[in-house]
Amino acid sequence: MHPGTTVRQDCLEKNGLSVTDAARVLGVDRQTLSNLLNARSGISPEMAVRLEKAFGIPAREWLMRQLDYELAEVMRRANKIKVEPFRASTTEGGGTHERGRD
């Protein structure tokens, strides 16, 4: 679930706030909040701090929700991400870096 859904439920609906009222409380414009609530944008660190200050839910918790959401989205298409596993070469001296490129 996109974290904007949680913001809508736990912050707006729980407190009887409209999007306009909540945007005013958070100190952002209505469109910014609307984009979050409608999953068109995510929770930035600044928004997380604003949510913590306004509604008491820790900023770290908001950011973890955002990270969990983004990771779940990528994992849904992980099989389409083509990357060969890294295999360290056994060069003389045991190093894997070319001289001058570390």
Automatic annotation (TrEMBL):
<dbReference type="Pfam" id="PF01381">
    <property type="entry name" value="HTH_3"/>
</dbReference>
<dbReference type="InterPro" id="IPR001387">
    <property type="entry name" value="Cro/C1-type_HTH"/>
</dbReference>
<keyword id="KW-0238">DNA-binding</keyword>
<protein>
    <submittedName>
        <fullName>Addiction module antidote protein, HigA family</fullName>
    </submittedName>
</protein>
<dbReference type="GO" id="GO:0003677">
    <property type="term" value="F:DNA binding"/>
</dbReference>
<dbReference type="InterPro" id="IPR013430">
    <property type="entry name" value="Toxin_antidote_HigA"/>
</dbReference>
<dbReference type="InterPro" id="IPR010982">
    <property type="entry name" value="Lambda_DNA-bd_dom_sf"/>
</dbReference>
<feature type="domain" description="HTH cro/C1-type">
    <location>
        <begin position="13"/>
        <end position="62"/>
    </location>
</feature>
